[in-house]
Amino acid sequence: MSKFTPFTFLHINDHHLGTPRSYRFRPAINRRWAAIKGQLAQVEADFLLVGGDLTRDGDTHEYEYQLAREDLDTLPFPTFVIAGNMDVGNKHTDRQGPHPERDDVSLNVTSERLRLFASYFGPINWTFVHKEVRFTGFYAAVAGSGLPEEDRLWRFLERLPDLPDARHHVAMMHYWPYMESPDEPAWDITEPGQYDDWYFSINPPYRGRILDLLEASAVDLLFCGHVHTGRPVEVIQGMRIYRTPAAGNTAQLAERWTDAETRYGFQLCEVTEAGIEVSFVVGADQCEEFDSYGPTGHPRIEDRDYSLAREQPPLSPDPWLTQD
Ligand SMILES: [Fe+2]
Ligand SMILES: [Fe+2]
């Protein structure tokens, strides 16, 4: 057997690069990410995995795709990217949630946005082998959408178990597959007490189908972001599940868990003969919010005030395209 070559790769999620040309901007997020990016660039890594939510409002501002692309291109190694909901739209729903200021159905992931995202960052679903380790990325939140991209996701995942074996298999999917347990029920978007759980995780039957297919593909390490809050590593169906803190945006739901990791940072992943060791590296700038403006959450396009932009010219929402 040939001698195995040790190597290092990196992982981040949720750096949410924003712009003062927008109706809202939080300079602290960009500053926290800038420090992390500087730290990443010092590592002798083969590549960086980017676990989604590269942008603040990429789902309505193509300009932010361009910003995020050019920003990643300043790193001294390649990047492999999956989409997040702030980039391409939320997990699909046919029903409105309990927050009147948030039009949940209009926030659904769309084919147009996925195609546009792919034109900047590459295929939505991808898998490759590097130095005997397989790496796989996909956007789980198309599950249940009925979009052509959902069919592609299932075909992609169902094919994974038949691909050539590797020494290890690392996957990432943006959403958490579950909140507390893989056996928990489907969360109801219309129930105020369940909205957050619905928003942050994948509901059955998709949750089980995804986890089963990943298990059948011998995935041993799964990265999930989206919540911006780190949780202890869990082993589920033979997979080490890393729910990782953000590389810039603020931790959410942190009050739920006494052991929540709320610091910004990245994962340093060292692959050796003995396995893959993942360590959390704390970002060098943990600054508080400063000079922020504009609303949080998911404001409707008609409720946005672009005259707040502090840099000219202000952005405007991309023209809405009809779904096919
Ligand atoms: Fe995020
Ligand atoms: Fe997200």
Describe the structure.
It is a single chain. This protein is 22% helix and 17% strand. It has a single domain, classed as Purple Acid Phosphatase, chain A, domain 2. The model has no long low-confidence stretch (mean pLDDT 96). The radius of gyration is 19 Å and the shape is globular. It is built from 7 helices and 11 strands. The protein is an alpha/beta fold and 324 residues long. A 6-stranded mixed β-sheet has the order 4-5-6-7-9-8, with no helix packed on it. Strands 3-2-1-10-11 form a 5-stranded mixed β-sheet. Bound molecules: fe (ii) ion (2 copies). One fe (ii) ion (FE2) binds next to helix 3.
User: What general outline do the C-alpha atoms trace?
Assistant: globular
> Could you say what the CATH architecture is?
4-Layer Sandwich
CATH homologous superfamily designation: Metallo-dependent phosphatases
Tell me, rounded to a whole number, the average pLDDT: 96
Please report the total strand number as a whole number: 11
Low-confidence stretches: none
Bound molecules: fe (ii) ion
Regarding CATH, which class?
Answer: Alpha Beta
Characterize the largest beta sheet: strand count, sense, and whether it forms a barrel.
6 strands, mixed
Remind me, CATH topology?
Purple Acid Phosphatase, chain A, domain 2
- How much helicity do the residues have? 10-25%
Total helices: the number is 7
Order the strands across the largest sheet as they lie in space.
Answer: 4-5-6-7-9-8
User: What string, H for helix and E for strand, traces the elements in order?
Assistant: EHEHEHHEEHEHHEEEEE
Classify the beta-strand content into a percent band: 15-25%
How many whole angstroms does the radius of gyration measure? 19 Å
